[in-house]
Design brief:
The complex is a heterodimer of chains A (576) and B (370). With 576 residues, chain A is of the alpha/beta class. Chain A has 4 domains: 207 residues, P-loop containing nucleotide triphosphate hydrolases (Rossmann fold, 3-Layer(aba) Sandwich), CATH 3.40.50; 80 residues, 2-Layer Sandwich (Alpha-Beta Plaits), CATH 3.30.70; 174 residues, 3-Layer(aba) Sandwich (Rossmann fold); 69 residues, no CATH class. Chain A has 19 helices and 23 strands. In chain A, the strands form 5 sheets. In chain A, strands 6-7-8-3-9-10 form a 6-stranded mixed beta sheet, sandwiched between helices. In chain A, a hairpin with a 2-residue loop joins strand 1 and strand 2. The longest helix of chain A is centred in the last third of the chain and has 20 residues. Chain A is globular. In chain A, 49% of the residues are buried. Chain B is elongated. Chain B has 370 residues and is mainly alpha-helical. Chain B has 2 domains: 236 residues, no CATH class; 100 residues, abc type-2 transporter like domain (abc type-2 transporter like fold, 3-Layer(aba) Sandwich). Chain B has a 4-stranded mixed beta sheet with strand order 2-1-3-4, sandwiched between helices. The chains are: A alpha/beta (576), B mainly alpha (370). Chains A and B meet through strand 6 and helix 2 of A and helix 1 and helix 8 of B.
Chain lengths: 576, 370
């Protein structure tokens, strides 16, 4: 982007509006995709990313405004010059890798003579050459993603629209995918990369931050980060003083966001630390590099730092030296396929234990074995002292479970859902009414009580799920991807509740694919290809990833990528 | 090769691979038809055959013995039990016999005077059987009486003979099997086609191919051709099985059979595509296909229930069931031979329905996902 003249945009949305019934999915959005640039489209689930991409791909008509692609109205654009990878890749699972490529080569009008060379290059590029004849349905998530990309690229497009290509893929594959697309933009392709991962946004040339159908930011990510300069600090706080310190920080009006980061606290201030740090005992030396998420939170007006009302009214869970959750060699096999292999950990009362890993690694399987929802092929475990083999029902009664997907009754009202879950957890009469009133107030559900749960905004659906899981005040909480897809403010609110509950003695087992959320956990197990490849505190894992001599990994994401590479290398050695 | 032709060929190749690799498609197209034909051929039998009865012969006279003999020789009855009425009643209740014919004590005496009534006891909870046994038992008695009175005299002046043309044995499988072919083609044309398009929506592949230069017309053709071939294949399978296994006559020409089947497949495929254009979920599509295509073809097409014996308003409803125009032609081509005077109007109706279905499909299929 040197040179004074801005090149002509390859694709553009001008004041695009799209409504679905009463919901406004896009409310006057402008976006420009320039050749040779990585354009990021960032936002939580339901922000309108997919709708905008579909409008640019000519698959949805906008209600207002205009979308132009390659100099024409989007619906009439020359499709052979447009590459589009939908969220579900668009692969035919019952066709092989090469058959999928052949199909898209014909559909995208790749001349016959160029086919061999192009396929060779793409298979090389995606490292799929070994799997030419494998059915697409039998590829791993990361490989499907790469094949989907190859199909979108088969006749080299001028514009490439990618709808959440990084979702559900392990960090290593995600990096590889990014590098491939980056290389394409280097060749002059205009790329639109949509994502819910804010760290990906930082690396784009130009970012559009979308929230509830509106643009919060448009421009180079550095513009947003510059506003954050000097406003993010990290301070080491011993665990014993953490609560006291957090309380003091909350009381101060200068703090917009405060989160735990391993053994430290990470703060976002309303103004540079040099101006407001004095009263909090912070110095300019504590300042660290801001992240895109800090800018997002700033644009949204700052996080709610009030103390968790949920924890304030939660019963105190009595002290107990025995582990609250224990997995002893849990293994689950489906025929020849091992979904989880020899998973072992013990979680002391009043701590957070995180299971991290890409989709399909075995996190949810481990989770369901511990909940007693599926029976382990080998090994056993216990929850709140109840052995899964002997007292499955007691174990289940002592835990609150928030499932990965919204698992409430969408066609019952919020009130009916709450009453139902109070009932199945054994609350009745006055106790049930009190519990329902209580969670209604805490999670701000009062305006929605008579609305059907299925029509709630995503953030409130997640709040309702959590409300149903904690109504009976269980000593153990199982949260399967509780913050998946919600915006950073809702994520903060959830973690605020979770960490405060832990202070009351509640034990939490949580899964997440947001690596930065791992920092909230006391201990973490990394699950990759059904095996537990590393276990420890976040700081320990970062150190382990750096190797015995090197410096610790800078982020959980990097640590995870390094540990996966090490595990892959070990696997190959074993195989050799 | 031109670009559209290349795209179309690519889609056809893809569709063919998918059909060959999907066990459920093969199941519906080739295994199910054979099972259906076997069911209609062996299990579902509308013929009366011989009905098991019991005879309570309370009179030892010559006439009573002769009448009991007439029942034993009747092609309609199989006398499996004799004895007193209370004893036979137990068997009737147990279901081992369907009716009791009681020949009363003074039957022979009455018969010599030109009278003689018998008593027939049947199970009223099975009204069809009951009516059958009652009327045929009376028939046997009347024939027997007529034969006795006619014995010394000359032959009666009028001889009434019932003769069934085209299906002389009145064997129901001969007209059920062509009907089964209609059912099979409905399943492949409407149900399978509706499912495969809905599947493309559900799996997100529709979105991906819509973003390529592929035209919507090319997409529809790529769905129609393979399933047309599959439907014809299933029809041939059915025909061969019914000719070989059941000896169903085939008096028409292959050309007529192909022409009639093709017209119906055009219509059924159009209906399937229309269903999937209106519904993008496999679940909903299969429900609609069952209710709108499969059940009417089974119940309102004249396949099992004669249209002419239905209430008038139902007869009008059957006019919008495409299979109604197929079944008479199919039965004719199998049992009677080519009759283009009958075929052509029916084929015209099927093509007309097909054109309407395709018209709606084209109007509803847009290159849009929402």
């Amino acid at each position: 982007m040197s040179g004074a003249a801005t090149p002509a945009p390859l694709a553009q949305a001008l004041g695009v509006v799209k409504r679905f019934g009463a919901i406004t999915a896009l409310d006057g959005v402008d976006i420009t995709i320039l050749p040779g640039e990585m354009t990021g489209l960032v936002g939580p689930d339901g922000a309108g990313k997919t709708t905008l991409i579909r409008i640019l791909a000519g698959l949805v008509d906008p209600d207002g405004g205009e979308a132009q692609v390659l100099g024409a109205i989007a619906t009439q654009a020359r499709r052979e010059r447009l590459g589009y990878m939908p969220q579900r890749f668009g692969l035919y699972e019952d066709l092989s890798v090469i058959e999928n490529l052949n199909l898209y080569a014909d559909l995208r009008e790749l001349p016959q003579g160029e086919r061999e060379a192009t396929f060779g290059r793409l298979l090389d590029f995606t490292d799929l050459a070994r799997f030419r004849t494998r059915l697409a349905g039998q590829l791993s998530g990361g490989m499907k993603q790469k094949l989907g990309l190859a199909c979108a690229l088969v006749s080299k497009p001028d514009v490439l629209l990618l709808d959440e290509p990084g979702v559900g893929v392990d960090p290593v594959s995600r990096h590889e995918l990014w590098d491939m697309v980056r290389a394409l933009s280097g060749e002059g392709v205009g790329v639109l990369w949509s994502t819910a991962y804010l760290d990906e946004a930082e690396r784009c040339d130009r970012v559009y931050l979308l929230s509830e159908g509106r643009l919060l930011h448009a421009g180079p990510p550095a513009d947003l980060m510059d506003r954050m300069a000097g406003r993010v600090v990290q301070i080491g706080v011993p665990a014993s003083q953490r609560r006291e310190r957090m309380r003091a920080l909350r009381a101060s009006g200068a703090v917009m966001d405060a989160v735990r980061h391993g053994e430290s606290l990470r703060l976002l201030l309303r103004a540079p630390v040099a101006e407001v740090g004095g009263e909090l005992g912070l110095s300019a030396d504590d300042a660290i590099a801001p992240r895109f998420e800090d800018g997002f939170i700033d644009a949204l007006g700052g996080a709610d730092l009030a103390e968790s009302a949920l924890a304030a009214q939660y019963r105190a869970i009595p002290e107990n030296d025995a582990p609250a959750i224990e997995a002893r060699g849990l293994t689950k096999r489906y025929g020849a396929f091992t979904a989880a292999s020899d998973i072992r950990f013990a979680v002391p009362r009043g701590t957070i234990f995180g299971l991290l890993g890409p989709n399909g690694a075995g996190k949810s399987t481990t989770f369901k074995m511990l909940c007693g929802l599926i029976t382990a092929t080998q090994g056993t475990g216990s929850v709140a002292g109840h052995d899964l083999r002997r007292a499955k029902a007691d174990a289940r009664q002592s835990l609150g479970y928030m499932a990965q997907k919204f698992s409430l009754y969408g066609d019952l009202s919020v009130r009916q859902n709450l009453a139902f879950f109070a009932g199945i957890y054994g609350l009745s009469g006055g106790a049930a009414r009190a519990a329902i009133d209580h969670v209604t107030q805490i999670f701000h559900l009062a305006p929605f009580l008579d609305m059907n749960a299925g029509t709630l905004p995503l953030g409130f659906r997640q709040r309702l799920s959590l409300a149903c899981a904690v109504m009976h005040q269980p000593p153990v909480l199982f949260l399967d991807e509780p913050t998946s897809g919600v915006d950073p403010l809702v994520r903060r609110e959830f973690w605020n509740h979770i960490t405060a509950l832990v202070d009351r003695g509640v034990t939490v087992l949580v899964t997440t694919h947001f690596m930065d959320e791992a920092e909230y956990c006391d201990r973490i197990a990394l699950i990759y290809r059904s095996r537990q490849i590393a276990t420890g505190t976040p700081d320990e894992l970062r150190a382990a990833a750096g190797g015995p001599d090197g410096p610790p990994a800078a982020s959980m994401e990097e640590a995870f990528a390094a540990l996966i590479r090490a595990a892959d290398a070990e696997r190959e050695e074993e195989a050799a | 090769m031109s670009l559209p032709a290349r795209r179309l060929r690519a889609m056809l190749v893809k569709e063919t691979w998918q059909i060959l690799r999907d066990p459920s498609t093969i199941l519906i197209a080739f295994v199910l038809p054979v099972i259906l034909i076997l069911i209609f051929g062996y299990a579902l039998n509308l013929d009366t055959g011989r009905t098991r009865i019991g005879i309570s012969q309370q009179d030892g006279g010559e006439a009573a013995v002769s009448l009991a003999g007439a029942f034993r020789q009747s092609p309609w009855f199989d006398v499996v039990a004799t004895g007193d009425v209370p004893h036979l009643k137990d068997q009737l209740v147990a279901g081992t016999i369907r009716g009791i014919v009681a020949i009363p004590q003074d039957f022979s005496r009455q018969a010599t005077r030109g009278g003689g009534a018998i008593e027939v006891i049947t199970d009223g909870s099975q009204p069809n059987n009951a009516a059958f046994v009652a009327s045929y038992a009376e028939g046997v008695r009347q024939n027997w009486a007529a034969a006795r009175s006619a014995r010394p005299a000359a032959a009666p002046p009028l001889d009434l003979t019932l003769r069934y043309w085209f299906n002389p044995g009145s064997i129901s499988r001969y007209f059920l099997v062509p009907g089964a072919i209609a059912i099979v083609m409905t399943m492949i044309g409407s149900l399978l086609t509706a499912l495969v398009l809905a599947r493309e929506w559900e799996r997100g592949t529709m979105e991906a191919i819509m973003a390529t230069p592929l035209g919507m017309g090319e997409l529809l053709v790529s769905k129609v051709v393979p399933y047309y071939v599959l439907g014809l294949g299933a029809m041939v399978t059915c025909t061969v099985v019914s000719l070989v296994l059941f000896g169903v006559p085939f008096r028409g020409t292959v050309l007529a059979l192909l022409a009639i089947s093709s017209c119906y497949l055009f219509c059924a495929l159009g209906q399937g595509l229309m269903i999937s254009a209106l519904s993008r979920s496999q679940y909903v599509a299969s429900q609609i296909a069952l209710l709108a295509a499969f059940l009417p073809s089974l119940l309102l097409s004249g396949f099992i229930y004669e249209i002419s014996s239905a209430p008038v308003w139902v007869q009008w409803v059957t006019r919008i069931v495409p299979a109604r125009y197929l079944i008479p032609s199919l039965q004719t081509v199998f049992l009677a031979g080519d009759d283009w005077g009958l075929f052509l109007p029916d084929m015209g109706m099927m093509l007309l329905f097909g054109a309407v279905f395709f018209g709606i499909t084209l109007a509803k299929t847009k290159r849009r996902v929402a």
